[in-house]
Specification:
Chain lengths: ~425, ~575
């Protein structure tokens, strides 16, 4: 089984001096306690596979850098890395301000001669299928759900049953504070990122009327300054959350508002945290999750031991480190109604008396959809389009209409969002 | 004309460059945790391939640990270059400790690194060899006699000490913590900690709820007001009604609670605050009984029998146990979750809780001051803030009763002592990784009883199983034999009996752990080293900051199945 689903072996043999790889080669040259002869031939095959595989790493931040280092020290020689950001906090102080992808690549290459890391400073959406087709495996170390969903849909879409090379295993890692997860996806064969979307529910947004009229928490005051006050007073200035002057302005506004309502606790640090949506992060959790991802990659490429993502087996490791150390490793089931890898439309429960506008708003928050700029249509008619502007204008009146006027109970409708190359199919179910 | 400029509120707390750099971690352990981290000097006693220890240091250098020292007499070999990120080609032939310390320092100029290259077995004989360090990490393989010396030092000076293994796809580490290691700031999940005392409201709270409900039953309340009654007040109101109809009893059983929820629901079927009230019924109507481990701390001998040397924690625990005896509940934490309400009502509600929390805390503080007097301690030996903090988190305090690290002695059976019965039970638990722990014990015993002719780090001439070119199978057999003997001794020590087929399955599982460990020949895989270094660094941070809950006391990682397991050995 393992050999079938593993990234296609490149069937190379080891070349050059292997003295520096003594530890790894010793292990790869001996049979494992959990391997059988059909899956794993000790020696030159797994070693050659490592040397010749080409790996794509998405993200060169805290997680991505660790991933690059781990891959280079696992003997991989051909690595590409994509990141669109510049450095804030990485390996060395002097690199702050440069493109993350190039600095990370350069730093790791210097320390690990023989490993070629090709950086691309840009967006994953810039690249097409031909580009992604070059890799044996993709590892994602990002904090953006949108980018994950995009690469997931792209890799699932690339699978061509006639061509085993088109199946690119996707390994994904994520962290927040003392928690994290690593998961392995064999596109179309096992549960994908879209199947698992509800595991990462977005935080519920505070209702606008609370911000505008009845704030109770310091965060409400900050959001008010951020969402309402900035628009009112500085609408011509694009908010730059990295500009201390901008944060200071918001902080002062929030502080004034808090004073008026006798709310305590607005601080500069909280303002920054709320406005930038800062996720607490520490080096150790990044190290754990990055290494777990790379360990799976190493096992997939070499077949040296069983790996997460074998169909019918565990594909997900949840990690929690705030109270003792706890991992939960399990199989997340593929969903038939997954908009990316399934073939059935998903039931969506709606109140027929509510408006289409409420449904559209809800799509951003429903854990299973998380669509912020949705376009909705049924087979016959257009319900609502968020963009382009002309269509938005012509369909806007529909937002005020009742669901019961627009969608029959049991009627199928499709939702797309320009952020993703996915068409979500839903069936309206009256509740 | 422009309106006169508003006078901006005074600015406070604009972060410094340093606060900005460490912003994302300060959000986890705060300035106190950071200060503790920055005043720590960690020593890594590095042996074997030595990658996991260095990866651990990386995760401590990045968040700005004070100082670190690497004790390692090894010379950099080519095999080191392929697995250790903190060495470069030019390091070849130089001292590994010196090179790694230099490259680690490069990550963060704020951290001072040191290297000691003296042979461990001579170094350890010096009296003050470990005197400078307040946390010790030891990597296997190591001569057990030296490890025992290190642990004796740790126990004498109460120095937290970690002992780690990382071989092939597997790793483990154990921690020695002082016999009592209390933690106040455990950072429990905020959703699980809300304590509102709805079943025992105090007069100020009841009065406020009554006022907010005026006119609801009579139907004279304005719709806007009704939609903004805080759910907490709604529940208090319906609880009063319930009690009147149920001989003064509150809903206790699950069925009663759901029936109670129906009465709340009947108050209004649409409003959001009624939704919130219904959703809160099941979790908010529990008597505020402290969890059993908190009650254990309150009744512990250290709490009850204070003496002149008792630490502040125990004085406060004693005062809180008195508070608990008197009031039947812990001091009120005082936090109120956000809920639909108009601003002014919510602020009043917050103040009602805060006032009560301050009263409770003041009562505890008064007892603490009294205790200081009785014990002849200086006044304010315990700080106000400590008491306040303790009262806020009283329901979530944690105590680790540290144990020593299990050290193998050549020619002596391994003892599990008072844990023998519990550990023997783990043998038949499919989820357990006790087999991996036993395999590492067997690995240590093998190392303790086999020698090479040449000198290696960790003790003179230690031979690691499977490290030769053609000893894989022979050593696997030997090590498995040792592991099986440990199992048999454990079963005997636990005075239990395991029957077939379970007995054979246990042995088979352990044989597999042994073979897989042997396969690596003592080598480290970088991924496993890095992952283990992450786990270990995180535990170090928890121990240093005394925040969050550390492991008790052994963590095992299985990189084949991708899972961890913590055992109390
Ligand atoms: Zn899917």
């Amino acid at each position: 089984m393992a050999a079938e689903v593993a990234a296609q072996p490149v069937n190379g043999t080891a070349t050059g001096s292997r003295a520096r790889w003594k530890h790894m080669d010793t292990l790869l040259s001996r049979p494992g306690a959990y391997t059988d002869e059909d899956d794993f031939a000790p020696g030159s095959v797994p070693i050659g596979n490592i040397e010749q595989s080409r790996i794509l790493v998405i993200g060169a931040g805290g997680l991505g850098c660790e991933i690059l280092k781990n891959l280079a020290l696992s003997g991989f020689k051909h690595i590409d890395v994509i990141d669109m950001d510049t450095i804030d906090f990485l390996f060395r102080e002097k690199d702050v301000g440069k493109a993350k992808a190039s600095v990370a690549a350069e730093f790791v290459m210097k320390r690990c001669p023989g490993c070629v890391i090709t950086p691309y400073a840009g967006k994953i959406q810039d690249k097409d299928e031909d580009y992604y087709m070059q890799f044996n495996l993709v590892i994602c170390g990002l904090d953006s759900i949108e980018a994950r969903r995009w690469i997931n849909a792209t890799l699932v879409g690339m699978v061509d049953m006639e061509n085993p090379d088109s199946l690119k295993p996707l390994i994904d890692g994520g962290t927040e504070g003392f928690k994290g997860q690593s998961r392995v996806i064999f596109p179309t064969m096992t549960s994908c990122i879209e199947c698992q979307l509800d595991m990462h529910a977005p935080r519920a947004a505070v209702p606008l009327c609370t911000l505008a009229t009845i704030p109770r928490q310091p965060q409400h005051c900050i959001e008010w300054a951020h969402i309402i006050k900035w628009e009112e007073e500085r609408k011509d200035l694009v908010l730059d959350t990295d500009d201390p002057e901008h944060i200071t302005w918001l902080y002062q506004k929030a502080l004034g508002r808090a004073k008026e309502f006798k709310i305590e606790g607005v601080t500069y640090s909280m303002t920054q945290g709320v406005v930038k949506n800062i996720i607490p992060a520490i080096a150790s959790t990044n190290a754990i999750v990055a290494a777990s991802c790379c360990n799976e990659a190493f096992k997939i490429v070499t077949s040296a031991a069983s790996f997460l993502g074998t169909p019918g087996e565990n594909n997900y490791m949840l990690y929690t480190g705030d109270a003792s150390i706890y991992t939960y490793t399990f199989e997340h089931q593929k969903k038939d109604d997954c908009p990316v890898c399934g073939n059935l439309p998903k039931d969506l429960f709606v109140n027929p008396e509510s408006t289409l506008g409420e449904l559209v708003e809800g799509l951003a928050e429903r854990p299973e959809a998380q669509l912020k700029k949705p376009n909705l249509r049924t087979e016959e008619k257009t319900l609502y389009y968020s963009s382009p502007a002309s269509l938005e204008e012509s369909t806007r009146p529909n937002l005020k209409r009742k669901i019961s006027e627009m969608l029959a109970d049991g009627e199928e409708f499709a939702v797309s969002d320009p952020a993703f190359e996915i068409n979500f199919r839903f069936i309206a179910r009256y509740a | 004309m422009a309106a006169p400029a508003e006078v901006p509120p005074p600015l406070q707390g604009i972060p410094t460059a340093k606060e900005k750099k460490y912003d994302r971690q300060l959000r986890l352990w705060g300035i106190n945790g950071q200060v503790a981290l920055e005043s720590t000097h960690i020593v890594l006693i590095n042996n074997g391939p030595g990658v996991t220890g260095v990866e651990t240091l990386k995760n401590l250098v990045l968040p700005n640990v004070g100082e670190f020292t690497i004790i390692d007499s090894a010379i950099v070999s080519e095999a080191d270059l392929g697995v250790n990120f903190f060495l470069e080609d030019a390091s070849l032939g130089k001292f590994r400790a010196v090179e790694a310390a230099r490259l680690l320092e490069e990550l963060n100029p704020g951290v001072k690194g040191h290297a000691v290259t003296e042979l461990l077995e001579t170094l350890i004989t010096q009296e003050k060899a470990l005197a400078d360090y307040n946390l010790i990490i030891v990597a296997a393989p190591i001569d057990p006699a030296i490890l025992a010396k290190i642990q004796a030092h740790s126990q004498q000076y109460r120095i937290p000490t970690f002992y780690l293994h990382s071989v092939g796809f597997f790793s483990s580490f154990s921690v020695y913590l002082p016999p009592t290691f209390p933690i106040v700031e455990t950072h429990p999940d905020p959703t699980s900690t809300t304590d509102l005392r709805l079943l025992k409201p105090w007069p100020a709270l009841s009065a406020f709820a009554k006022e907010k409900l005026k006119g609801l039953e009579e139907g004279t309340m304005a719709a806007h007001d009704k939609a903004h009654i805080p759910w907490l007040c709604l529940l208090l109101h319906y609880l009063e009604k319930w009690k009147q109809a149920h001989d003064g009893n509150v809903p206790e059983a699950f069925k009663e609670k759901t029936a109670f929820r129906d009465t709340v629901r009947a108050g209004d079927y649409n409003e959001e605050n009624f939704d919130e009230a219904c959703a809160a019924v099941l979790k908010s109507l529990n008597p505020p009984t402290p969890p059993s481990d908190v009650r254990d701390i309150l009744s512990a001998p250290e709490t009850q029998n204070l003496d002149k040397s008792s630490a502040p924690f125990w004085l406060i625990a004693n005062a809180i146990s008195k508070f608990y005896q008197e009031h039947g509940q812990l001091p009120l934490p005082g936090a109120v979750p956000d809920m639909k309400a108009v601003s002014a009502d919510y602020i009043i509600l917050q103040n009602i809780y805060k006032t009560k929390a301050r009263q409770d805390s003041a009562e505890v503080l008064a007892t603490v001051r009294e205790l200081e007097k009785q014990l002849g301690r200086p006044q304010n030996f315990v700080q106000d803030a400590e008491v306040e903090n303790f009262c806020k988190g009283a329901a979530h305090i944690h105590l680790v009763r540290g144990r020593s690290i299990q050290i193998v002695e050549a020619g002596k059976a391994i003892q599990f002592g008072d844990r023998a019965k519990a550990i023997a039970k783990e043998l038949t638990n499919d989820e357990s990784l006790i087999g991996l722990h036993i395999a590492f014990l067997a690995w240590d015993e093998f190392v303790a009883t086999h020698h090479t002719s040449s000198q290696v780090a960790g003790g003179q001439g230690l031979k690691v199983p499977g490290s030769g070119t053609d000893d894989f199978e022979a050593d696997a057999e030997k090590m498995t034999g040792i592991a099986h003997k440990i199992v048999d001794n454990l079963i005997k020590e636990a005075e239990t009996f395991v029957e077939d087929p379970e007995y054979s399955q246990i042995k088979e599982k352990i044989a597999k752990f042994c073979t897989e460990i042997l396969r690596a020949g003592g080598g480290e895989l970088h991924n496993i080293a890095s992952l283990t270094g992450g786990l270990l660094a995180q535990e170090v941070i928890k121990v240093i900051t005394r925040q969050y809950v550390p492991i008790d006391n052994t963590c095992l990682f299985d990189g084949v199945a991708s899972r961890t397991r913590v055992l109390r050995i």
